[in-house]
Amino acid sequence: MNRSPEVISNRESIIDQLELLIDELTAQRPWLNRIPEAQLFGKALESDLSLFQMYEEMERQERDHLAVFSLVSPSGAARTSSIDALLDRLIAERRTLTDHLKSSSLQFWQSHLMKEGKSTVEEVAFKISQTDAAVLRTIAERLYESQILFSK
């Protein structure tokens, strides 16, 4: 049985998974705004990332993803000490990626990305969604393990 590439493409579910990051960050924002700065920027161990640094790393990775799809140059973003500004930037970058993928043809989804070797767009997008899940799980574990004292 010869199935068309459209039938075997998972692009709608992958886009849904990628958009979940936006939903999750939007849901986390009120909680993050209530965490005292000492807990947002503090580290349990010097070798650990603070919660804020975890979000900075997510944003850096998102810029890298956009660069892979040639949507931005891989230059660094301006640093901020505001969790709101960081979340705004991360959400905007993810929307740029998902909007691009939504408007892309099936042929684009099946094409190979030059910067990713033999991986197709679909494979790279799926890998990004899996990375999101791992990072969000790490953040959830950090929040669970910390005794967060809401200040606001």
Produce the secondary structure layout:
Elements: H1 5-8, H2 11-34, H3 37-41, H4 51-68, H5 83-102, H6 106-110, H7 121-145
Defining traits:
152 residues; mainly alpha; Four Helix Bundle (Hemerythrin (Met), subunit A); 7 helices; elongated
Structural summary, described in words:
The protein is mostly helical. It has helices at residues 5-8, 11-34, 37-41, 51-68, 83-102, 106-110, 121-145. It has a single domain, classed as dinb family like domain (Four Helix Bundle (Hemerythrin (Met), subunit A), Up-down Bundle), CATH 1.20.120. Helix content is 66%, strand content 0%. The chain is elongated, with a radius of gyration of 17 Å. The model has no long low-confidence stretch (mean pLDDT 85).
Brief characterization of the structure:
This protein is mainly alpha-helical and 152 residues long. It has seven helices and no strands. Helix 2 packs antiparallel against helix 5, helix 2 packs parallel to helix 7 and helix 4 packs antiparallel against helix 7.
Sheet with the most strands, sense and barrel status: none
Number of helices: 7
The parts where pLDDT drops under 50 for at least 5 residues are none
The structure class reads: mainly alpha
Task: Give the C-level CATH assignment.
Answer: Mainly Alpha
- The CATH topology corresponds to Four Helix Bundle (Hemerythrin (Met), subunit A)
Which H/E pattern describes the elements? HHHHHHH
CATH architecture: Up-down Bundle
